[in-house]
């Protein structure tokens, strides 16, 4: 770890010790809130004698999960907002300090004096950002990563939605809000079941292309290791690039045309503001491309627009699942 970051993170621990020293006495053992909780997150065992009070989230997905569980009051800060927070979370989000609109640094993490750090992705924990999980653990700061990032730790047949729900259950234990978690899981399981009912009515396994973004005109699509493969299966289709062992591989328009998808799901990242981020820009690119423009899906506008952030696993992903199921019905694939 760079000396500058180590010094910053050591400051986190010193600050945390100071907070602990001024805290109220531990509640009696008869208080359920005082019972120690142990969970495992992507191979690391985390122990919480009491529910965390100062949580820092490193990405929008983990921020919105906290808000969905009514835990805005536990957030000491957030970072890395990719797009607008979902409308149902905006009022609570407005109460939370934004430590950085982009990726968080070690210095910013130190200044927030957290007692718990949460991220959806392993990539957030690197030495030149906030430090690795191992480095932070040595300094007494527990870190969480979504179970979706570690499918190898789960039983065969476990779906990405199952992994998301396991994240919620872990938060329920950590923050002692199991009743809220149960309500959220029940609601989201109902959405998954509804999409699967649509899928049962779809015949012929239509091929679905998931177009996330473009960079310098080059498309990035959903590969076989991400959530879109499961969402395609649920709505009765097949992911066009489910044979590629990556989440979001870079491909060419010509390679997409070779797959000749029946349906194209286009991610809208308008708020991010980069060229080609909006759904409208991506559709215009396809209509103008000499090969893509000849595809039936493009000519007949068999295109479904969804929020781009919901293509990655998050508390909002069931919304995109519902949009795609609805799109399959409107396009005539569900009989």
From TrEMBL:
Where in the numbering of this chain does the Fe/B12 periplasmic-binding domain appear?
54-335
KW Signal (keyword) present: yes
- Top-rank taxon, per record: Bacteria
Show the SUPFAM superfamilies listed in the entry: Helical backbone' metal receptor
| Keywords attached to this entry | Signal
Similarity section: Belongs to the bacterial solute-binding protein 8 family.
Record protein name field:
Iron complex transport system substrate-binding protein
Q: Which organism is it from?
A: Kibdelosporangium aridum
